[in-house]
Design brief:
The protein has two domains: 274 residues, ABC transporter transmembrane region fold, CATH 1.20.1560; 162 residues, Rossmann fold, CATH 3.40.50.300. It is built from 15 helices and 13 strands. The chain starts with a helix and ends in a 5-residue tail after the last strand. It is an alpha/beta fold. The chain is 56% helix and 9% strand. The strands form four sheets. A five-stranded parallel β-sheet has the order 8-11-12-5-13, with helices on both faces.
Length: 506
């Protein structure tokens, strides 16, 4: 039942009903007031009053329903959009600026919300025109021709505005992209400005020119609507048949023309949403990043990996080289050292992010440059995505069941999240503490059952109890997998085993 209620056509239908109920309420209530003023003896006041109340309740209920189900649909669509983005960006290092993560968050929200913000508004206008045409044909057939001409003209203007806006939006997106590239190029060359005869300048004039062109089209459409409705109203009031004088039905065409400025103008005002949607869609398709090439020739299953050795290790910005490192199944390696000594960089080199900084052999065989899909790196500062707990754990992998998610949450001590896996975290949603984020990221990595698990500072921000829990979990996983842990903090009274202190060798 819940899946049906979050289908797009359900929330779409609720939104259209909300708009149409409002239009019918205005028309029927105005007719009722006119009918009361001209009513004769025996006029039934009760039935129209009940109908008006029913329309008002429908308007209110559909409004709240659209708010609720529309947001539910928005969340579903947002989860789908972000899951698809996660899957597409797998094994990709983003190369944008520090605001890229926030931009991706906003863009996915804009793409997911296009259904509510743009399509529902336009569908309401189309169905409103058809409904008014039917009402006028039934109750005031002498106005059917003029209303038909009005509806046709408005539809043509509306369609023309959509077509023109689409062309302007494409030009605006292209201009914005060119402006952004120009800004990035100019700022990236700042160190060379002193060599230029004149410091480079950036002018957004072209962007604003196209932007105001779009706004001007919207405003012209609204003005044309006002002129058209005013002309229709004047014609209706000056061409009243004699047999209709004193008939309350005469107010129907007039109120339709007058209210058109409210229910029809939303179609014009929704044009900027199309701009936002197309801009966001293009940015998502062109997300800057470097795709790490998978090392398909060296993907070995966990039961075949016996040892991995890194040699000729050169840490970035360090003059000395790191000694050769060898790890084996059942013998986790603990990398220690002071802050800034290069523990995180070493893990990234071992992961394959920077293949030129080391040579790697698996079971004695040279590994080609590339990225291992089955190796997982849990970074020191993990990122929580602004989506549900389940999607944060799945990261686009739809094969993981809810039960698997709950089991891994319990394993890392996040039992309180097991009954809330569809709740949102990150962004402006529920916040997790630093220690909880650490354990959450470890759970996310363990779900993939990686052949090699690299963990950066797993005990930071944890109390002694949870430190022992995570230590036991890592040790248990290391019995059948290759594990490397970089840390400056250890649980008390534990056997560290194989340890490499970078302070002693760098």
């Amino acid at each position: 039942m819940t899946d049906r209620l979050t289908r797009p056509w359900f929330s779409f239908g609720i939104g259209v009903i909300h708009q149409i109920a409002g239009l019918l309420l205005v028309i029927f209530a105005t007719w009722f007031l006119a009918a009361c003023a001209t009513a004769t003896v025996g006029f039934n006041y009760m039935l129209p009053a009940v109908a008006i109340r029913a329309l008002a309740l429908t308007r209110i209920a559909s409004g709240y329903g659209h708010l609720w189900w529309g947001h539910q649909r928005l969340f579903v669509r947002l989860r789908q959009t972000r899951s698809a983005l996660f899957a597409r960006l797998k094994n990709t290092i983003l190369t944008g600026n520090a605001e890229l993560e926030t931009q991706l968050e906003q863009d996915t929200l804009s793409v997911a919300g296009a259904w509510v913000n743009w399509l529902v508004q336009h569908a309401s206008v189309v169905l409103g025109l058809l409904l008014c045409q039917v009402i006028i044909i039934i109750f005031t057939p002498h106005d059917a021709l003029i209303w038909g001409g009005f509806a046709l003209t408005l539809s043509l203007v509306w369609a023309m505005l959509l077509w023109q806006s689409h062309a302007v939006v494409r030009a605006l997106v292209s201009t914005q992209t060119a402006l952004r590239n120009n800004i990035n190029h100019t700022l990236n060359s700042a160190s060379l400005w002193h060599l230029y005869a004149q410091v480079p300048t950036i002018s957004p004039a072209r962007y604003w020119q196209v932007y105001f062109q779009l706004q001007g089209q919207v405003q012209r459409g609204i003005v044309f609507l006002l002129v058209l409705t005013s002309a229709g109203l004047v014609y209706t009031l000056t061409h009243i048949p004699e047999d209709m004088l004193g008939n309350a039905l005469l107010v129907i065409p007039s109120v339709i023309f007058l209210s058109a400025q409210d229910w029809a103008v939303v179609g014009f005002q929704a044009q900027p949403e199309l701009l936002t949607f197309q801009q966001s869609q293009q940015r998502l398709q062109q997300t800057p990043g470097v795709v790490l090439k998978p090392d398909g020739n060296n993907e070995l299953s966990a039961d075949r990996i016996q040892s991995i050795q890194w040699s000729n290790i050169s840490l970035p910005f360090r003059q000395k080289t790191c000694p050769n490192i060898q790890i084996k199944i059942g013998m986790p390696l603990w990398i220690t050292g002071s802050s800034g000594v290069g523990k995180s960089s070493l893990l990234e080199i071992m992961q394959g992010m920077y293949p030129k900084f080391a040579l790697c052999q698996i079971n004695g065989h040279q590994r080609h440059d590339g990225f291992h899909n089955s190796w997982q790196l849990v970074q020191q500062h993990p990122t929580l995505l602004y989506t549900s707990i389940a999607d944060n754990l799945r990261m686009g992998d739809a094969t993981l069941t809810d039960e698997q998610l709950r089991e891994i949450l319990c394993a890392v001590g996040l039992n309180k999240l097991t009954n809330q896996i569809n709740s949102w975290i990150g962004g402006s949603a529920r916040q997790l503490s630093g220690g909880e984020i650490k354990r959450f990221a470890l759970a996310r990595a363990l779900l993939r059952q990686p052949e090699v698990l690299l963990i950066d500072e797993p005990f930071e921000g944890l109390d002694s109890h949870n430190q022992m829990r995570i230590f036991a979990l890592i040790s248990d996983y290391a019995t059948h997998h290759c594990v490397v842990i970089a840390t400056h903090l250890f649980p008390v009274n534990v056997d560290q085993g194989l340890t490499l202190n970078l302070d002693d060798v760098i």
